[in-house]
Structure formats: C-alpha cells, structure tokens
Amino acid sequence: MRLPLIPHPTSPHGGLTLEVEARRAGRVLSLEYVLAGPVEMVRWPQAAERVRTDGLWQATCFEAFVRTTGGYVEINLSPSGAWAAYRFDGYREGMRALEMPAPFIVTRTAPGRFVLTADVTLPEDAGESVGLSAVIEGFDGTIAYWALAHPSDKPDFHHPDSFALDLI
C-alpha cells in the first residue's frame, strides 16, 4: 500500500512530494520511499559505509517508528547507506541502541525522482502500529519534516498519535 507523507505545516517542501510503501512479512518490514519533484534541490548525505551511525535525523533521512511491547523502536535510514536503530521504553524515555541486523538499503535516482528501499528486521515484540516519516534538508539549509500524521504544533515523530498505520 503506497501512502502519502505530508510535510508539517511549518515545513517548507519546495514542490516535493513524498510517498511510502510499507509491507510486513513476519519480522521483516519492507519500505519504499519515493521523493518526487525538484530532488536536485535536496542536500543528499555523502555515501558512507553501511554502519550504525548516530545523528542521522539531523540531515536527509527516512524513518520508521514501530510500537513494541511496553514502548517503541525508531529506525533511521540514510541515503548514504548508514543507519541507526533505537528502543524506547515510553514517549522519548529510556532511549538505547536496538541490537539488530543492518538493514538492506538501496537507492535509485532519475530526473525528478529519488527512491530509497530498505528491508528492516524488527524485534520479536514489534506490534502492528507504525509511524513513517522523513527529514528532508534543502541546499538552502531548510529542513522539512514529513510524516503520515502531524498531531502536534511542532514536528514530533515520537508523538503517540504519529503511529498512524497498522501493518499486520
């Protein structure tokens, strides 16, 4: 199922659109983010090794949040190939690294289009509720925050109401 992500009302989007397709088979979450429009105006991170890296959300990054028993996990997928994963006990509480296999990330570009696909192995206690989001940085330094839902006046992908999709 392909769903539109919407920019937060305070975020400039520069004529871009962003859609994501999400599928789940057992513990594997498969994601395909499609950014369309003037993608040449996006600041893309430098290619990097496929290693766990903190702070990816401070630049162009695609994200997934998944409820777990007693909390949730956050997964950051950089177009550079770097990734990060964290477990939380509650709303922004108890953050720690989530031990998991490195996600398989592939990117493709064409005029007016950028696609990032990833397969992520979820923890055994992953639930059905998912929040999908992205941070898109422009060459002018502006940051746009995209998500399925924006339940607060400030961008907040951790907000409980941001988990707006149920995947079985």
Number of strands: 12
Q: How many DSSP H or I helices?
A: 0
Query: What percentage of residues falls in helices of 4 or more residues?
Result: under 10%
Number of domains: 1
Portion of residues in beta strands equals: over 45%
For the termini, the CA-CA separation is: 12 Å
CATH class: Mainly Beta
**What is the arithmetic mean of pLDDT?**
96
Radius of gyration: 15 Å
Anisotropy-based shape: globular
Provide the CATH architecture.
Sandwich
Backbone structural class: mainly beta
- Please name the CATH topology: Immunoglobulin-like
Listing every helix as H and every strand as E from the N terminus to the C terminus, the arrangement reads EEEEEEEEEEEE
Sheet of most strands: 12 strands, antiparallel
pLDDT below 50 for ≥5 consecutive residues: which ranges? none
What does this structure look like?
- The chain is mostly beta strands and 168 residues long.
- It has a single domain (2-150), classed as Immunoglobulin-like (Sandwich), CATH 2.60.40.
- The chain is built from no helices and twelve strands.
- A hairpin with a 2-residue loop joins β8 (104-110) and β9 (113-121).
- The radius of gyration is 15 Å and the shape is globular.
- The mean pLDDT is 96.
Topology:
Elements: E1 2-7, E2 17-25, E3 28-36, E4 61-68, E5 71-77, E6 83-88, E7 96-97, E8 104-110, E9 113-121, E10 126-137, E11 143-147, E12 165-166
Antiparallel strand pairs: 1-2, 1-11, 2-3, 3-9, 4-5, 4-10, 5-6, 6-7, 8-9, 10-11, 10-12
